[in-house]
Amino acid sequence: MNPKKISSRLHTIIKSAIVAVILLFIFIYIVVAKPDYRIMNGVAHIAMPLANGVGDLVTWPVRAGGKIIKRVHDIYNLEQENEELRARLDQALADKNNCDIALIENQELQRQLDIVHENPYASVVADVVFDNSALNHGTFLVNRGSRDGIKAGMVVISFDNTLAGIVIDSGANFARVRSLIDSNTNIAVRVAGSEVYGFLAGNGSNTPTIGFFSDHKFQADAGVKLVTSGISGVLPPDIFVGTMKNDSDVDVITPRELSRVMVLKFNSENDTYR
């Protein structure tokens, strides 16, 4: 840029400022010493625009600096918000990744333990209306019967696919179910994820007992999960039965824990579901 042009503009600005100041003083003198309103109005029309222009010129750097500072502050706030949002996004992605890993591991564990959590078979939903646990018995009634296609031998499970009992007889609108704690219960089971087999026997208490016959050296620990073996054809295989409490007692679902169940239409004659 030409220095002469800058100097010329600067001289013009200085002259204008001096004229504005002189006119302002003249205006103040007239107002104080000789208050002639016609002169005051005339001077005001000249002095005030000049004074406003000089004021705008003088205060422009301050106003421009204020806008720049405000813009910088806004940009800083946006950067802070962006950093916080990025941190939240990274955490959400990490949580999702952990959930995906846990889901895959859970599915693999279920596959290894042979525990079936879904069944593709025909079933009838029923409500538990009565239970009887007197004299070492553990039976209960459901409000569905032969009119709904329920027959003796069909399997009853809870809504989390845990074995609850076997239908022993049915009327038109009800069916009686023998639970796993009943003293007449004796079903073939298997240690989930292995080829160790045994028989679960009810005894009237809340914890039936198990005896292993395929591997007499097998030592069951607390937490071992049991599923139906399917070897007798009386029950479908791989339904969750219960969890070992110690080396002989099994924690199973009891009638008093049930309010609604599913009756699987199992036909033990050909080992299929209807």
What does this structure look like?
The protein has helices spanning 3-33, 37-113, and strands at 123-132, 139-142, 155-157, 163-170, 175-179, 186-191, 197-201, 209-212, 225-228, 240-244, 250-251, 260-264, 266-267, 272-273. Strand 4 (163-170) and strand 5 form a beta hairpin. The chain is 39% helix and 24% strand. The strands form three sheets. The chain has a six-stranded antiparallel β-barrel with strand order 1-2-5-4-3-12. It has two helices and 14 strands. Helix 1 (3-33) packs across helix 2. It folds into two domains: 3-82, no CATH class; 123-273, Rod shape-determining protein MreC, domain 1 (Thrombin, subunit H), CATH 2.40.10. The protein is rod-shaped. With 274 residues, it is of the alpha+beta class.
Write the layout of secondary structure elements.
Elements: H1 3-33, H2 37-113, E1 123-132, E2 139-142, E3 155-157, E4 163-170, E5 175-179, E6 186-191, E7 197-201, E8 209-212, E9 225-228, E10 240-244, E11 250-251, E12 260-264, E13 266-267, E14 272-273
Antiparallel strand pairs: 1-2, 1-12, 2-5, 3-4, 3-12, 4-5, 6-7, 6-9, 7-8, 9-10, 10-11, 13-14
Helix pairs in contact: 1-2
> What would you call the quaternary organization?
single chain
- Percent range for β-strand residues: 15-25%
CATH topology of the largest domain: Thrombin, subunit H
Q: Identify low-pLDDT runs.
A: 269-274
What would the principal axes of the Cα set say about the shape? rod-shaped
With strands numbered from the N-terminus, the spatial order across the biggest sheet is: 1-2-5-4-3-12
Q: Please give the CATH architecture of the largest domain.
A: Beta Barrel
Fourth CATH level, the homologous superfamily of the largest domain: Rod shape-determining protein MreC, domain 1
**Global structural class:** alpha+beta
